Amino acid sequence: MKTLHILQHLEREGPGLFKGVAEEKGFKTKIYRIDLGEKLPIAKTNDLILILGGPMGCEDISSGKFPWLLNEVNFIKKTIKDNIGILGVCLGAQLLAYASGGKIEKLFGGKPLKFMPEVGWSEIFINNESKYNQIFKEPLYGLHWHSDRIILPLNAELIASSKRCQEQLFKISDSCFGIQFHIEYEDKMVKKWIKEDYKFINKALGPEGQQILKKQDKLYGNKTIKQRSILINKLIDLVISKKKAP
């Protein structure tokens, strides 16, 4: 039986919608708490790797703060070499790009230009020049929760962007895709994020940040579940079929 191997780095950042969609498509799902010392999976050809988010970043790979990060990067490199499908979300997208020769840098914005994390809901815009430009047709709103941006490797293809950060959805190979925004989130997840991650929220949005996110969640959360689930379904199909176009 084919398996969706889920690499999780933090208790509150679980697979969300990915788990249900994958199981509907005949995948068995297994979660690996990499941050708790669980071993990385041994994946087979028909399996799929899902790499989730977390507050750590690529700058921590050499710091020793999260010693498992380097092992995870090496695992990603081997998985790409073995042509096993990968979907990376937020930190997972950054690790996927980094392992493929890309770079990660802090996200800046505003006038004058300053360090400014991207937190909250905003529209995701398709790159019309991408051969994947039909992967979604209706306006798509995504939840952002990151302070870094990805400088894509030369072999990557940019699929979609937000106004604040260009690298929101991209392809590394026909079987590897990165998603910077949180396509996976469910209502119970984001409530926990808003409660526990208040320091990061305040850094991005100010002291009213939690209330801003609660209001945005009411506007976009449940309303976008169907659209986000459809996009997850399409991405899984693309990865497992190794197609060059949706």
Structure description:
- The chain has 246 residues and is of the alpha/beta class.
- The model has no long low-confidence stretch (mean pLDDT 94).
- The chain is globular and about 45 Å long.
- Strand 11 and strand 12 (169-173) form a beta hairpin.
- The strands form three sheets. Strands 2-1-3-4-13-12-11-8-9 form a nine-stranded mixed sheet, sandwiched between helices.
- It has one domain (3-241): Class I glutamine amidotransferase (GATase) domain (Rossmann fold).
- Helix 1 crosses helix 7 (225-241), helix 2 packs across helix 3 (91-99) and helix 4 packs antiparallel against helix 6 (209-220).
- The protein has helices at residues 17-24, 68-81, 91-99, 187-196, 198-205, 209-220, 225-241, and strands at 3-8, 28-33, 48-51, 85-89, 103-106, 108-109, 114-115, 118-126, 140-146, 148-151, 157-161, 169-173, 176-179.
